[in-house]
Amino acid sequence: MGMAASQARFLGLTARKNNVEFEGQQINQQRTTLSNQSANYYNNLLGMAVPVPPSVDDYTKTVYTFEDGALTNQITAMMSQPNGDYTVSYLRQWTDDFSVVSANTSIVNSNADKTVFKVGAVTLREMANRTDADIEKMTTTELEKFRGTDEYLKTLSDDQLKNLLKEENAYIELLKNKYGQDSEYMVRYIKNTTTGEYEANFYKKTDLTGANYDDNGNSLSNINCYKIGSETKSEEVKALKGCKVEKDSSGRYINIKIPAYDSKGNPDINKGITYALTTSTATDQAAYEDAMNQYEYEKYEYDQAIQEINAKIEIVQAQDKNLELRLKQLDTEQKAISTEIDAVSQVIQKNTEASFKTFG
Fold this sequence. Notes:
Layout: H1 3-47, E1 60-68, E2 71-80, E3 86-102, E4 109-110, E5 117-119, E6 122-123, E7 125-126, H2 132-137, H3 140-147, H4 158-179, E8 185-191, E9 198-204, H5 205-209, E10 226-247, E11 253-261, E12 267-276, E13 278-283, H6 285-359
Antiparallel strand pairs: 1-2, 1-13, 2-3, 3-10, 4-5, 5-6, 7-8, 8-9, 10-11, 11-12
């Protein structure tokens, strides 16, 4: 290799070595940036709050109840006073066996002008609120006309039918008190296959006239129906003053004494009644389920965020791996260039020495 060629080769190798070193610096800078990104992602992971499922204990409370005849009373508030007395509120509950409750809904058939309604083969009868005096004045002929073709009414004597009409007055009052004073009602009596007795089923007239019917007169949906049955009722007794409470050694309440009150509401503890308290626990299931649903939602969001961050970390790691491989390639290339530069340098040195000897 001539001197000029060796010099050109040396310069080319030197330039290539500089380029490799520069590219290596660029790659190291990129890897540093990726390392910072990865550190940020891991910091985000460490900073995320892990959702914690709700504990049923947080939605469970101790409930104190006491019995007063047929009444079951649940204490809702019990606040101690400076003088040692307690101000107590409680919820009084009882079963009303003569109450209006929902019955099975049914398809109703109507004539074209919506004046006659049937359920099965039984025609509904409009309930008329007669006074007891007017009912007593009804003659046998009037009662027979009133019976019409109703299978149940035909089984009743005149006196039984009059008593039934008086009962219907009470039914009407119950229905209006519960569902509105302006409502009118229709009735049919059906036989209870278990007891063998007839039970009244009531229909609000506006539900019947307002329903949609097909071409055959059948209602397109079931219509609400009501009957007389048992219903749990309640009322709250608030802020009874002057109550005395007894605790056991564990601090749990075991007795409560509710005083008598005068016309002004002042307590008279000498005339009070002591009730034994029953302790139980009650869980607010609806609130617990709401909290559990919220936890499931937060857990889903947490898992999604974890997956997204892990996916980003995997991308960064893959990019860093590629850069690391490229850096190794550059390192190998740089070693090869350095070896070749050394060889070219020796050639140049020998050429230089030979030239000096020639001219020496």
